[in-house]
Amino acid sequence: ERVFLFAHTRYQHLVPEIARRVREKRPGSHGRFYTAQVAPITKEQKASEERDKAMSRIPAGYIFEGNREPKKDDRIIFLGPSECPLLTTIRLSFNQNDVWRYGEDTKGALQKETAPSRMLGKRFYTMSKVKEANIIGIVVGTMSATRYLDVIKHVQDVIRKANKKSYLILVGKINVPKLSNFAEIDQFVFVACPFQSMVDDEDYFVSIATPLEAELALVRGREWTGDYSTDFRDIIPDQGRLQSTSEHKTKPADDDEAAGVRFSLITRKVEPAIGRSDQADAAGAGAVVKSSSALTVKTSSDYMLTRTFKGLDATERPDEAPAQIEPGLFGIASKYAFESSGAGRNGRDLDAGNEAPVEKDSKSSVQEETPTDVAPARRLVRKRTPAEIKAMLLRKKKEEDEDDDDEEEENMESRVEAP
Asked: β-strands 208-209, 187-191: how paired?
């Protein structure tokens, strides 16, 4: 068996030295030990790398000598931390290989990574939810990756041929509040670089799929064989190694599909089959919907009318008087000028706007300068520091000890005076 070594970018500079030492200690490892190198970035070499990547499972940005890649019985060693997008990509792309990891937390030994069966099961569940979705949002997560526009167009065609609606969303770096603004979306498809496509969607209100998962869920005749990839270039027509072929589209329909039904793994019921059409069913931003009486056109703005919360209302109301400007607190945080315990200290003249030094004993003059129409502010209590709390507890304990001593002395005196 052969051994293939991947390394985190933090340890990439150690790869040549590791390869040299392995070949010195084990001369027979020549032709059996390969190390992943960072792919070249020149235009000519990048074009060649694009052609080689078309039928390769190697993660984007890395390349082996002679364009080799691990086979089913080969071993993979990863040098780096456990929480790493590169390691996740390797485990999913080579889910039938044994993956071993060496890092700072492995205590100087190789640690075998568990099989990604649970992770793959979660991705299969996401594919099932894509089949149930009627409105799919395509979230653009990169605008610098090669051929990202081709993938977006391809995903839009796949969704349209499945008789579903799609919307293109660009919000920058995604997070829960941003995507929560699109409450009408049933499912998101995230188009991003291979190391960012896998999103932990536990906190999101709907799951987030990859372009490959949308392809497997919506293209007629596609069946998941276990091959997986986080690189969206693998589904580009006439290039990707996981692209849909004519064999999938011309596959004979089974009994359920011929009857127009399917079994849903989400609802666990028999549902109508996913409609599939090779003709465009939408024109512009609206989708034509047939009804019993007439044709109606529904656009994305119609969904806003059904929302109970539509955001902040910025319309002007001339009948309502604007709020009056009221003076706020001034002074230091521990004792404001309007506080009852320290009124007038370090105060300002509200009428003139200039500092008005006030004597510490002249409390009556301060009360005359304070406007009568201003309500006294709520008393603010300063939070004690840990040192003050500790000193207070020590003082309280000392007082309790003194009280106990006084009580004990009194008891002794009463005993002595007693006959």
From this structure: parallel
Do the Cβ atoms of 343 and 366 come closer than 8 Å? Answer: yes
Residue recorded with tokens 């027509």: 237
Residue-level pLDDT at 278: 42
Crossing angle, helix 148-161 and helix 211-218, to 10 degrees? 30
Running DSSP on this structure, what letter comes out for residue 67? G
Q: What letter does residue 318 receive in the DSSP assignment?
A: T
As a whole number of angstroms, the distance between CA 231 and CA 239 comes to: 12
Give the long-range contacts of residues 154-161, CB within 8 A, separation 24 or more.
154/211, 154/235, 154/236, 154/237, 155/189, 155/191, 155/211, 155/214, 155/215, 158/214, 158/215, 158/218, 158/219, 159/214, 159/218, 160/280, 160/281, 160/282, 161/218, 161/276, 161/277, 161/278
pLDDT at residue 378 is higher than 90: no
Angle formed by the axes of helices 211-218 and 117-132, nearest 10°:
60
Range with the poorest average pLDDT among 21-25, 119-123, 270-274, 350-354: 350-354
Q: Would the pLDDT of 253 be above 60?
A: no
Partnered with residue 136 across adjacent β-strands are 166, 187
Backbone phi, then psi, for 402, in 5-degree steps?
-65, -40
DSSP 8-state code for residue 321 = P
Q: In this structure, is the dihedral angle defined by the CA atoms of residues 228, 234, 240 and 245, taken in order, positive or negative?
A: positive
Report the C-alpha gap between 382 and 148 in whole angstroms: 56
Per-residue pLDDT, averaged over 225-237, amounts to: 84
CA atoms of 389 and 380, how far apart (whole Å): 18
Q: How many residues does the chain have?
A: 419
pLDDT of residue 66: 64
- Which residues touch 217 (CB under 8 Å, ≥6 apart)? 127, 128, 130, 131, 209
Cα(82)–Cα(100) distance, integer angstroms: 11
- Rounded CA gap, 388 and 374, in Å? 34
| Alpha-helical regions (H) of 332-385 | 363-369
What pLDDT digit, counting tens, does each position of 38-79 carry?
765 555 555 555 544 545 667 767 777 766 778 888 889 999
pLDDT value, residue 60: 67
Which of 373, 380, 385 minimizes the C-alpha distance to 341? 380
